Amino acid sequence: MTDRARYTLASALLLGCLLAWALESRPAPAPAPGGALVLRGKFIGPTAAADAATLAAFADELAIEIEHDAAQGEPFFKTGTQYDELRTRARILRCRGESIGERQPKVRESIEAFLDGAVGKSGGPVSKSQREAWAAAYREIGRAAGEATR
């Protein structure tokens, strides 16, 4: 093998190593949002991360409560108004009266529009499928808020 061939081979190997290192050291792209609601980038200010984490846990817990209630022989919550009241009372107890929506108006607006589309605005009686829709909507809010923390 000639010197020129050795230099060419060494250069090609070095270039290959540099290319492999460059590709491995690049950060992976952020995953695309996985659901109907996107809250990433809507939490702002010094409490943004804590607000997103609190909302994620809060919404997941509401979904659990709704699913548990629906599994009872005679559900306690029978109207859309009662579901909204559950959320309000739970927020007062869980967040000690503080409103994440007041601190995070873009989040509040997104969730309001999402809930209007997912469960509607009716405060009247809810069917089994509507109970499932309420639980699924709160699961989606929890997922989206959790995703916003990453």
Explained architecture:
This protein is 67% helix and 0% strand. With 150 residues, the protein is an all-alpha fold. It has a domain at 48-148. It is elongated and about 90 Å long. Mean pLDDT is 84; it is low at 28-33.
Q: With helices defined by DSSP (H or I, 4 residues minimum), what is the helix count?
A: 6
Round the Cα radius of gyration to an integer and report it: 25 Å
Strand tally is 0
Distance N to C terminus: 54 Å
Spans where pLDDT lies below 50 across 5 or more residues: 28-33
Q: What is the helix fraction of residues, given as a range?
A: 55-70%
Shape: elongated
The major sheet is characterized as:
none
SS-based structural class?
mainly alpha
Strand content: under 5%
Mean pLDDT: 84
Give me the strand/helix succession: HHHHHH
Topology, element by element:
Elements: H1 3-25, H2 48-70, H3 80-94, H4 100-103, H5 105-119, H6 128-148
Quick summary:
This protein has 150 residues and is mainly α. It contains 6 helices and no strands.
Characteristic terms for this protein:
single chain, 150 residues, mainly alpha, 6 helices
